[in-house]
């Protein structure tokens, strides 16, 4: 540490809600969180003392930001690997490092690597070469339609993903003309989606959270059930082992979230993320160590914290923006209705469909806990009138 | 609220660890915490985005600070009541208000009021008039020696309190010459000290936390056991009722901590505080709603949160500074030793005996939980060598 008496400085590139919630944990640990935000209005910039305004995709901004940090980490996957290597070469460790993070940045690299490691994945193919349409057509014939077309980079919350019922020449040509790299995957039939969240520290310690079920609507995670109800213990243990092994083999430092499909073929890996993850927000109240504290402990190479849950069931529901920006007046009702509900708002401008916060409920009875979380999230979005049809469900980050 | 879309602005006068921990709760609630700190190095100033540097005992600084706040509250008791009234007259509500806060600022006013309300207090007398020594002497004859001499204002952590075995003319004359107002109280024999923490909102809602036991050394709280072990249920309920009634009768808005003696005469009120209190730090991990969130909810007149504990036993131990400022290297050991221990550091310069943080342990077995908290606090202070005799135990805030 550069100044032991003052505590470590952790730089987080990106000023979104993940950095914001990391600040809550940093305060407790006596860690100085420095945030590189695009604007002073960013979610995390509103709650941190040490905010640098800049572009985390600019090497100059990133390098200036990293100076004086004990370690640099990330609120998202969009910092170019070359920049990360340059910052490391200049003397500031980045966690995760560029080589690991690449697997959360490029879906094709991830699939190739996980397949080589023997991790269970959907079948896939790169869409490239002279006749990309022929690849999609051949892949569809082999696996059956529909197939899933993905941009290898830059997608999130359902963006960059298209379900094709047949080779859609117009769409594919348009995407390639935009310069996107594409891949195609089989459309996996699954019963539900699970997520495995683990942490790994540079000295090699690992810690796994209970496996959760994630519920998606229109490509956006709307609900997380912890632990995944009715999940076979063997499968849960297998999912934890799989995530810990991926973290180790890829050299991840910090958190790793592995999104999984559960279906007739067992577990299949969907996506990876190497940062605090929406599927882990429940840990703020629901685990002895929140994912945000765990990420800080991991990137600082501190011993990891206990992941034991604080209640038999914990349900997190994302709060999406509705038509009326005055979410704070609505949370009064939510708190009065349910004194045990935990409201977490991100300080973001309310736009229809945008993730602006989440709520967490805890208790002994899953149906009850789920209903409480659902009610609170719906009320914060819509107020007493309930959903209005004209509001789009499309989300953003 | 002045700008509903952006969330309320709560101004907290004072930049100590109570404001720092309030920031953790404010982030979750989407509340913008503005802090009036004496220096950018203050505990809370290091972790808040909206910091105003100034003197909270100056009306000009306080008034400028209050502008644009939806409500002003306090991290300590030292803001003069007249200033608070002036800020309220200028249009910003202060919670607690001056009339209520006076009872946490002036021990004689508090004793007179509580006695009038019939709340159980130690016997006491004002030390004033022409012959203050005669008052002390008479009081000692009546109640028996020793007696407790107190400055009516400004004391904390054992400061401003003297135990007299007889009329100590030299000391009393010196204190009076310093301009201190004095009172004398009987030296109450007690088995242990308890604390009752409640919240009250402007619309009159009240919420009580479980009664805790506080363990003091040299006038400083070193340990809090929640709930108070072996406490008779009736007495616990009586303590909660007493605190709720005091909050109501005094018109407290926000938190009220009532420090109590438990002894042969039942419960006696020792001191009052109207802010988050050291005896409530255990609630961060140990209760569904932390005292910091509860205080914000109360001063914003939001419905209060559930106070249910998250484990059968929760023990908080204060971390005092030792000789070596590098507490961060020592917490590595503490975390490795006990993955479930929660470390909370205040970002304060380490000085011997100064409160620089606290640790919290939770579990089913009180002796075990207490040992874990004690070990962590001792290790953070002393390291592997254990206490060194030459270090003073004298504390400060």
Report the helical percentage of chain A.
Answer: 25-40%
Question: What is the class of the largest domain in chain A in the CATH system?
Answer: Alpha Beta
Average residue-wise pLDDT of chain A: 94
The largest interface is: A-B, 57 and 57 residues
* CATH domain fold name of the largest domain in chain A: D-amino Acid Aminotransferase, Chain A, domain 1
Percent of residues in beta strands of chain A: 25-35%
Number of domains of chain A: 3
Query: How many strands, what sense, and barrel or not for the largest sheet of chain A?
Result: 9 strands, antiparallel
Secondary structure tally: strands of chain A: 17
Number of helices of chain A: 12
How many whole angstroms does the radius of gyration of chain A measure?
A: 21 Å
Low-pLDDT stretches of chain A: 390-397
Q: What string gives the helices and strands of chain A in order? A: EHEEHEHHHEHEEHEEEEEHEEHHEHEEH
